[in-house]
Amino acid sequence: MYTAFWALAVQPGKTPAQWIGYSALILFFHGLVAYFNTYFLVNRFLYTRQIGFYIVALGLSIISVTFPISIIVHRLVNNREIENLVWSWNFFLITALTVLFSVVLIMVLKLLKNWYQEEQAKKQLMQLNLQTELKFLKSQINPHFLFNSLNNLYALTLMKSDAAPEVVLRLSNILRYVLYETGVGKVPLEKEIQYLNDYIELEKIRLGNRVDIRFRTQGNLQAKEIEPMLFLTFVENSFKHGASAALDKGWVDIDLNVDHGDIQFVISNSRTEPQTERLNNHSGGIGLDNLRKRLDLLYPDLYQLELHDEPEHYTVNLTLKNEYHA
């Protein structure tokens, strides 16, 4: 494209084929300086901040190709106006400036290419971090919850309770979802809700009447997808504090609503001590800081997270915006 531009602008010959051929020959010397600058001078002098050496070396490189370009123009180019300029100072100045333009053009293109490659590398790294973080989250599916569920199951089997099969079924659903269904990107919102419901029902069995637990869903849940296990940290934290031994009667209230494609998740729990700091240092999951990072990567500019730490209750309000209407 650059050669074609030169051929049409200068027309250094009698036929279009000569225009292209002579332009390509002249631009060959432009390319020598441009790539010598991009792959050697920039790395050797400019990146090491030896500006003076860089300017001198680039200037000498440009001057060195003005002579062969002048010879080519003198012998081959069929253009009276250009021929009359050859071997004049004006011609050498114009030639040097055109070579400099080629040098700058190649340099800019190289910088753009490097920027694009860096952006692609960052995206790949972000994706890798997301995958690693999700794997970490899976490994942190609150081992305390798992142990408590198994202990509860053991106690129920000793009592020959009718609730034992339900514990086995719900625990099996949770493990199947975490291990096999969350590694392929987004999952149907209904599956995420079922996962949360299984988790909550097991907590109900464990806590009995100590905690009043409510989980409500509203809106059109079908055909809506979500990144898996985004709500787990908040749910674990709410049960941890809402079921505190310091409370005579704790409570956990969860609402999940889909409205015009937006997903709003609100969870509140009773509390007896400040909770936000505990959530930042949450040991049973990924913690609030890491969760924010995960949301930044998964839903850039598409989420809103509000935390309200009141004297007697704690509330999390997370909204995931519809990407088509954000």
Please explain how this structure is put together.
This protein has 326 residues and is an alpha+beta fold. It folds into two domains: 2-123, no CATH class; 140-320, Histidine kinase-like ATPase, C-terminal domain (Heat Shock Protein 90), CATH 3.30.565. It is built from eleven helices and seven strands. The protein has helices at residues 2-10, 16-46, 51-76, 80-85, 89-139, 143-158, 164-180, 189-207, 232-242, 276-280, 287-298; strands at residues 187-188, 211-219, 225-226, 250-259, 262-270, 303-309, 313-320. Strands 2-4-5-7-6 form a five-stranded mixed β-sheet, with helices on one face. Strands 1-3 form a two-stranded antiparallel ribbon. Helix 2 (16-46) packs antiparallel against helix 3, helix 6 (143-158) runs antiparallel to helix 7 (164-180) and helix 6 (143-158) crosses helix 8 (189-207). The longest helix is centred in the middle third of the chain and has 51 residues, at 89-139. The two termini are 40 Å apart.
Category from helices, strands and their pairing:
alpha+beta
Helix and strand string, N-terminal first? Answer: HHHHHHHEHEEHEEHHEE
Q: Which whole number gives the mean pLDDT?
A: 80
Number of domains: 2
Please give the CATH class of the largest domain.
Alpha Beta
The oligomeric state is single chain
Helix content: 55-70%
Would you identify the CATH architecture of the largest domain? 2-Layer Sandwich
Measured distance between first and last alpha carbons: 40 Å
| CATH fold description of the largest domain | Heat Shock Protein 90
Poorly predicted parts: none
In percent terms, what proportion of residues is strand? Answer: 5-15%
How many strand segments? 7
Q: What does the largest sheet look like?
A: 5 strands, mixed
CATH superfamily of the largest domain: Histidine kinase-like ATPase, C-terminal domain
Strand line-up across the major sheet: 2-4-5-7-6
The global form is rod-shaped
